[in-house]
Amino acid sequence: MCGRYASTKNPALLAAEFDAVDATEGDAPGPDYNVAPTKLVPAVVERHPRDDEGNPDPDTTERSVRVMRWGLVPHWAKDLSGAAKMINARAESVLDKPAYRDAAAKRRCIVPAAGWYEWQPGEGRKQPYFINPGDGSSIAMAGIWSVWWQQDGDERKPIITCAVLTTDAIGEMRNVHHRMPLVLPKDRWAAWLDPDRTDPGDLLAPDLDLVDALELRPVSMKVNSIKNNDPSLMDAVSLGESEKPEPTLFELS
After folding, report:
1. What integer is the mean pLDDT of 100-111?
2. Most buried pick, 25, 33, 105, 113, via CB within 10 A?
3. 235 φ, ψ (degrees, to nearest 5)
4. Strand, helix or coil at 19?
5. Can the peptide bond before residue 109 be classed as cis, meaning omega within 30 degrees of 0?
6. Nearest 10 degrees: CA dihedral of 88, 93, 97, 103?
7. Residue in 101, 137, 155 with CA at minimum distance from that of residue 214
8. Which helix or strand (DSSP H or E) is residue 251 part of?
């Protein structure tokens, strides 16, 4: 957890919702109802704008929607091979783990989602659920990001990667899984994105009121396969509905 989610809004809608500007420059992916590790995803950041020489303006900040690759790659990594294993960072240890602590202090983001999928353990196959606000608003998943430089001939190309923070499940979420994304209420957005704030420790606890307001519904086993990607994956199904199991993301890999 969190290993799969839905991202359905275009950058313009996300920019309006998060009081940001669209800086995706046409590179944003389209609606994705089954976002899997290493895919490109929209994320919201707030930074000091830089002049032509690369110097930041300390008196000004700009919030923008950017495109990132899901699966954090630390700047010191030798290659991108470990990205799929670093899609999540535990909120309890993110400030201490060498792979995450620098990003947690200096490069935080919000990863917007229409909702996320979770699999409830049980006898036999696991039952997937979709968790979302129910009112059409986006879930603001707390994230961190990093820049990894890829050598492309004589040039170096920056690859922006991110991870979603997770925490112990609270409220009704505990009935589905023991972990959940760290979902930020709107009154924490500014503090979380603040580029000058280096200690986000008091922002790492989940908000019970926000979590209890989320809707949980069982969905089709079709979401198990990354080959399936359409709005019906988010539709409710009856528990016990007979379906042929499909391979999960981890079985495919």
Report:
1. 97
2. 113
3. -75, 145
4. coil
5. no
6. 60
7. 137
8. helix 249-252
